[in-house]
Amino acid sequence: MNDQERREQRRATFNNAEHRHQLAARIGATIAAHRVQAGITPEQIEQLLGIKPRRLADIENGKFLPSPDTLEAIANCIGCRLEIVKN
Fold it and tell me: What is the CATH number of the domain that holds 57?
């Protein structure tokens, strides 16, 4: 498989709705666990980042997949760093 075929395969996987739902659920659960461990309330993060009320709950419950910028901002609020790990 060449590089172009690999990119197309990754793109097709990411565009798959089930894959996006699983990704959102894993990201949300990770954010929730680290936020609770840091002792930070959802309201505090929403106020710090200026995001809509309940948006963090939607993220933590896997109902909304945030942008990379929002993920980085949340990670900074809860004392974590955002990393991309290649499988």
Answer: 1.10.260
